[in-house]
């Protein structure tokens, strides 16, 4: 079995340039489906199944190689993505995107600090002509969210995190989402859920999704202040299944039934409803 990356310097230049938010989200979702197919293909090989060779065409444009010497490409991304700094979440790969497709800002916990807002404001104004979408992309098993959950559940046991000012600037921004996720889990499954041995893992999982939606809520207000008509969406990269979803999934098939992206909540009540939907999608055994 071979996976062949076929580089053709004379391949026709196929620039993906979505014309609106809907087209941009569709393009990203299709890219993630290609990425998932590749992962699935590789896993079948690992499992010893007989599979056909796979040819992946690569063009100079995809790799960011200038086709004309001495001329810089025009900066024209169609989506801005605020993602986590986690090394296991390579955003362009996850969406199978080319060079110049995405304006990417990465910071631990995909939290919205001033520099992040400044970067996205720049994209929303200076690159407005090409930019159609803004996305907050969290991920499952996020270390920053896990640290916030640790501090939430047992602050005295994690003093080095709770009382470190630089780390707190990240943890504090995630804490609202952890509280919302904890309330949503209790509302759906009852207060006994907090006594379950797996509660911490469940709370981390729910918080990853709520944190992404909450950051999108914040970011939408910031974006509205500098430009009109730019929609912020949120999603979470599921490390176990290599798919991108707005609500938790239990297997890859569910990824196709679930929405890949959610629209940023419009108010705190909207955010609360999203947190409850996230909790319900987890279908935990402690359900009342
Ligand atoms: Zn992370």
Lay out the secondary structure.
Blueprint: E1 3-7, H1 21-46, E2 54-58, H2 60-63, E3 79-83, H3 91-94, E4 102-106, H4 114-126, E5 133-139, H5 143-153, H6 159-162, H7 165-189, H8 199-226, E6 232-238, E7 243-245, H9 252-257, E8 262-263, H10 268-281
Parallel strand pairs: 1-2, 3-4, 3-5, 5-6
Antiparallel strand pairs: 6-7, 6-8
Bound molecules: zinc ion (ZN).
Structure description:
- The structure is a single chain.
- This protein is globular.
- β1, α1 and β2 form a beta-alpha-beta unit.
- The chain has 10 helices and 8 strands.
- α4 packs across α8 (199-226), α7 crosses α10 (268-281) and α8 (199-226) runs antiparallel to α10.
- Strands 3, 4, 5, 6, 7 and 8 form a 6-stranded mixed beta sheet that branches. A two-stranded parallel ribbon has the order 1-2.
- The protein has a single domain (3-8, 16-281), classed as 3-Layer(aba) Sandwich (Beta-carbonic Anhydrase, Chain A), CATH 3.40.1050.10.
- With 288 residues, it is α/β, with parallel strands linked by helices.
- Zinc ion (ZN) binds at residues 84, 86, 109, 139, 142-144.
């Amino acid at each position: 079995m071979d996976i062949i990356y076929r580089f053709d310097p004379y391949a026709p230049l196929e620039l993906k340039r979505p014309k609106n938010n809907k087209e941009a989200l569709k393009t990203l979702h299709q890219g993630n489906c290609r990425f998932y197919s590749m992962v699935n293909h590789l896993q079948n090989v690992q499992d010893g199944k007989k599979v056909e060779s796979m040819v992946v065409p690569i063009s100079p444009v995809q790799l960011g190689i200038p086709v004309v010497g001495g001329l810089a490409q025009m900066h024209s991304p169609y989506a801005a993505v605020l993602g986590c700094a986690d090394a296991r979440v390579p955003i362009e790969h996850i969406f199978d995107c080319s060079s110049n497709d995405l304006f990417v800002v990465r910071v631990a916990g995909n939290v919205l600090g001033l520099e992040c807002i400044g970067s996205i404001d720049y994209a929303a104004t200076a690159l407005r002509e090409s930019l159609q979408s803004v996305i907050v992309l969290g991920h499952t098993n996020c270390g920053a969210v896990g640290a916030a959950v640790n501090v939430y559940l047992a602050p005295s046991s994690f003093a080095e995190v709770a009382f470190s000012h630089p780390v707190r600037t990240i943890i504090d921004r995630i804490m609202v989402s952890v509280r919302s996720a904890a309330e949503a889990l209790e509302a759906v499954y009852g207060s006994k859920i907090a006594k379950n041995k797996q509660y911490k893992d469940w709370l981390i999982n729910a918080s990853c999704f709520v944190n992404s939606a909450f950051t999108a809520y914040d970011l939408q207000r910031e974006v509205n202040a500098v430009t009109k008509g730019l929609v912020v969406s949120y999603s979470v990269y599921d490390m176990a299944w290599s798919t991108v979803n707005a609500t938790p999934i239990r297997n890859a098939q569910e990824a196709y039934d679930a929405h890949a992206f959610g629209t940023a909540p419009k108010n705190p009540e909207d955010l609360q409803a999203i947190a409850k939907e996230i909790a319900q999608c987890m279908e935990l055994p402690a359900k009342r």
